[in-house]
Structures are given as C-alpha cells and as structure tokens.
Amino acid sequence: MTAPQSRASPKKGDLTAAEKEMLQVVVSGNIQEALKLLSGGDVRVNCLDECGMTPLMHAAYKGKADMCQLLLQHGADVNCNEHEYGYTALMFAGLSGNSEITRMMLDAGAETDLVNSVGRTAAQMAAFVGQHDCVTVINNFFSRSRLEYYTRPQGLEREPKLPPKLAGPLHKIIMTTNLNPVKMVMLVKENPLLVDVAALEKCYRVMDLLCEQCVKQQDMNEVLAMKMHYISCVLQKCLAFLQERDDKLDALLKSLLKGRDGDGFPQYQEKFIRDCIRKFPYCEATLLQQLVRSIAPVEIGNDPTAFSVLTQALTGQMALMDAEFCATCGERGADKRCSLCKMVIYCGSACQRLHWFTHKRICKALQEQRVCRERDTPRLREVPDNGANQSIFISTFK
Ligand SMILES: [Zn+2]
Ligand SMILES: [Zn+2]
C-alpha cells in the first residue's frame, strides 16, 4: 500500500488500515493511541469514512473534548462539509450537547451559518434535539479577532478605536450568556481597566459600531446586533454613574437591585432593560418588533419580565425553569438559600450580601407566606448545613 498524500483531497470510504484504526481510537477516546497514529504518517487527519465523516466529526459527536483538541492541533478542518447529509463538526458538537466542544469548534473558526441537507444550521439542529446550552453558545459566539480589528488604527486614524488592553475584558463581556445587568456591571467592576470613564466611552462606541456591522452585513444578525446594543447601553449606564463619583458602580448595582415596596420587584432594572430595547437604533428590525410586542402589554412587575424576554430572544434559552438562577446576578446553578425565608436563592454569599439591603424588607413577609404554604404540604427533609459557608443568612441545600 502506498502512503497517502496528505494534500490530496480524501475520498469517502477510501481509508487506509491505519485510518480505520484511527476512527475506532477516536470513538473510544484513547488519546495516546490517537497521537501515535497521527504521528505515524499513514493517517490523514481529514480522512472520510463511507458517510463522509471525519475523525473530528466522530470525536465531536461522541463528546470527546480532548480528542477534538488533539485533532484540531493536527490540522483537522473544522468546516469540512463532505458528510452525506451536510452535517459539520459544529453540528455534531451541538447534537452531542457538549458546550465545551461546541465552543472549541467556534474558536477554531467553525462557520455558524452552514446548513445541512434539510436547510438547518448547527444552532437550529441543537435546538431541535433540546441541547439549549449549545444553542446559547453558538448564538452568542463572537470571535475575538472580529473585536481585535478595532485595536488596530484603520485608514487615517492615528489611534485605534479600542486600546488593545481593553479587547480582552470587553470580549469577556460580549461572550457572557448571562444578560442580567447586575452581572454585567459586576464584570465591568471586577476589571480596573474598565472602571474608567475614557475606557468605557471607547468600549461603548465600539459596541455601537459592531451593532451597526451586524445589521448591515449581508446575512443580517439581529440577535447579535441587539446584544451589542444592549451591552453598549449597560456600558453607557456605568459611564453615567462613574462620571459622578468613582465608587458609583456600587450605587448602580443597588439601583438595579432595589425592590419596590410591597412585592420587592426591581422596578429600576425592569425599566432599564425596557429602555435599552426601545432605544435599539434600527426600528425596522423584526426582532425589535417582536420584543416590543412581548413586553409592551405587560404591566411592570408581572411576568414575563423584560429580562426573561430578552434572554430568550438572544440566547435561545426557553427552558428557564429547569435551572435555578441567582436572585442577584442571574447566574445559573445557584444553590444557596436565604436561611430565614428559604424563598430566595443565590450563587454565593457575595450576591446574598449585596441583595440584603432590599431583601430584608420583604424577607419576613416571604417567611410567613412559606409557613402558610407548608401547613398544607408534606415537608421535605432538609440536609444539614455542611458549614462550608459561614454566612449568617445562607444555608446550603444540595
Ligand atoms: Zn449571584
Ligand atoms: Zn429571606
């Protein structure tokens, strides 16, 4: 048998013995063997099995993250589209439900708008099989290089629109899938480079440019445009507070969290998000019209909140009920409860402490509500606090 030419384009099902072995090794996830085979010279990294699947597609579908990494390092083509039904590695990653691999494919340059033989994109396929985390990752992906374009002077500019040191922190905010404004202000606050009037001004202007770009590009991406606009609004709000006083971001956090009398509903936050949506500069966008239609008839304080409508539109997360969200920052997987009322959950003691100034006003009423409800329902046995968290308010329920 002749050694395969690495540059010749592979034919479906035309596999050397080593390549057949390679496909088995990929599926089983044996990294050492895979490395040996790849270094042996008889394996083309983009070889195709009878269905037109590459080793990378197999690894993605089986959820083998390390294997995907190894194959990409060896030059696996992330956009190979030879599969009999037009599936790409990104589609297989989405189907597998592995969001780490999905992100890896995107970082490696996977195209998000390729469609399979029935016209579905990777995000649509992942949604179809209920892999909402992967949908979120795909819909919110924005490559760092697209942002870094603005860190180089363009045309006659003497200075770039975005100082290179701001690209990292800003990209982190762009990639967040938690659109809670409290969380976004926290992301600004945690980076000293961003807690600066001049830096915030540059960042929000770049966000506005990106928003415009997403609207005007050939395949208009309204979802990303709305997200860019929303981030710009949050940054502008931070800027407005910072211009008054250096420690004003804390004041902004409190405004966003402050609950109104009676039910503790965070009115300021609701109005802020509604305003952001209304200020979207491209009024002909269908997404904007949908959002306004969903939000306008809802009285402030009722469901759905502007936050949940926006999150659903931008991240594709429909099943918000299956996860627990921090009452302060909206992070998923919150598992700490206010130990007094046991009605509010947090991701950690920092968030709980930040919320207490407003929660304390309704905590007692919530306690009474719970007692009334529990009188008629059998009690769940509480797992004793493991003592890992010493907060006076929090107890952990696992
Ligand atoms: Zn939190
Ligand atoms: Zn409470």
TrEMBL record:
Instruction: Report keywords, A-Z.
Output: ANK repeat, Cell projection, Cilium, Metal-binding, Repeat, Zinc, Zinc-finger
Instruction: Answer whether the UniProt record assigns the keyword Zinc-finger to this protein.
Output: yes
Read off the SMART domains from this record. ANK
Q: Which InterPro entries match?
A: Ankyrin-MYND_dom_contain_2, Ankyrin_rpt, Ankyrin_rpt-contain_sf, Znf_MYND
A Pfam family reported for this protein in Swiss-Prot or TrEMBL: zf-MYND
Q: Which cellular compartments is it found in? A: Cell projection, Cilium
Question: What does UniProt give as GO cellular component?
Answer: cilium
Which regions does the record annotate with the repeat ANK?
51-83, 85-117
Gene3D superfamilies given in the database record: 6.10.140.2220, Ankyrin repeat-containing domain
Q: Where is the MYND-type domain?
A: 326-363
TM helices/strands, residue ranges:
none
Q: Does the keyword Metal-binding apply?
A: yes
Where does this chain mainly localize?
other
Q: Name one GO molecular function term.
A: zinc ion binding
What SUPFAM superfamilies does this protein map onto? Answer: Ankyrin repeat (SSF48403), HIT/MYND zinc finger-like (SSF144232)
Name used for this protein in its record: Ankyrin repeat and MYND domain-containing protein 2-like
Species in which this protein is naturally found:
Chanos chanos (Milkfish)
Protein's gene = LOC115824727
